[in-house]
Amino acid sequence: MTGTRDALEQLRSTLADVLGFDDAAGWSDDELLTNMGALECLGRLVDAHRAAFAGEVAERSRLELGAERLSSRKGCRSAAELIERVTQASAFEARRRIALGTATRARAGFTGEPIAAQFPLVASALAAGDLGADAASTIIRELDRTRPVADPVALATAEQALVAEATGRGDGAPVCATADELRVQAQAWSTFLDQDGREPDDERAMRHRGFRLGRARAGLIPVSGDLMPEVAAKLTRLFDAHLSPRSGTGFMTDDERASLAETGEQRTSDQQRHDVLAAVIDTAARSGEHPTIGGAAPTVLVSVRASDLAAGRGRAHADGVDIPISLRAARHMICTGGTQTVVFDADGRIIELGAQDRCFTPHQRRAITLRDGACVIPGCSVPASWCEIHHVIPDVDGGPTHPDNGVLLCWFHHRSIDTSGWGIQMVRGVPHIRPPSWLDPGGGWRPATKSPTRLADRRERRERPREGVA
């Protein structure tokens, strides 16, 4: 074992001597591409052995081995965790290596007879460095799902054809197929191999449905998964209803339509769908129709230092996510959900626990909803039930939790009210809106409502002078 480790260390040292990290900047275009290809060939060999090592770790960590499992003996819950600890790779990468190593690993039967790898051609091309780990994983993933129903001869033919496409050795493959090109071809083979399937499509869909939150990157949490068709249809119609140019609610008055013919919408369709989903989540959480946590509605706990909040610098932290959130997001959540002061001494002991600041009550929300009708920003079609209540004068600045200081805003306009340019002020308990200068230069304050009853009152007041003239 020491000899192998020393040899690998020598290879690493040699590569470091051959390549400087910034050498590529001094190469010509052809040198750059040629050397990149040569380095990739080396990388494919390394990836093949990484997968082989991971497959062996998984084999020695089988559940049936009980306490003798390698992962258990090393204090890890699974083979994937053990690989993570040794390699510092992500959990996703560890699982990918295990899947690839297991599918390309020759095994021994119960009586000791050799058993070929599940995908012997992929294993051979991978070991030779002709096939990359991503391409190999694509072939295995797409073909393996058909294994229970596919004809073995047809499955072997598909594997041979895909490996040939990936290595550029097929009749119709003058160049090596990229991993993405190979994925399309592998999916076509998968469909061919499982034209009927042993289980109805609905049962298969039910088995594979799912929704996942990924690891944070670039300050965002990626999502992925597969929705049942009827769920996707409902979600699509929900998006359509709120992303159409006008939802037909009739919220805007004639004066508003004339002065704000363009709403100034600058969000992309993806961003708008995100904001619709945010409103749906908030609405569901406060509906009272979902399970409670600790006797209360599902509530996200956000922690932030008072000094950071006062200075406007620093970060806040929300339970359930690995990355910090901005102070802007924290203020948004404070405005919506209230705050509770917790004081620690120098050693971290809790020495003071303040009462939780009161949020708008359901009775206040109903009153504000009757007054405002929906999000008070002109042109926004988000209904009242999806809106949050915004403290016009922030609670931290002494603003009361009273209908005279609360207005309905959708998630997006509430989140961006400090930066969007929209102004809101309360005049004798009535919301007044001022558009941003880029949308309406020189625009002044005007009362804002989308309440059908208040709009009817306005129309009635306008008609009375005409009736007197007649």
From TrEMBL:
InterPro entries to which the protein is assigned, alphabetical: DUF222, HNH_nuc
Superkingdom of origin: Bacteria
Matches recorded under CDD domains: HNHc (cd00085)
Key words of the record: Endonuclease, Hydrolase, Nuclease
A molecular function GO annotation: endonuclease activity
Residue ranges with Basic and acidic residues bias: 455-470
Domain (HNH nuclease) ranges: 363-415
Pfam families: DUF222 (PF02720), HNH_2 (PF13391)
The keyword DNA-binding is annotated on this UniProt entry: no
Segments of this protein annotated with the region Disordered: 435-470
Protein name: HNH endonuclease signature motif containing protein
Organism encoding this protein: Agromyces neolithicus
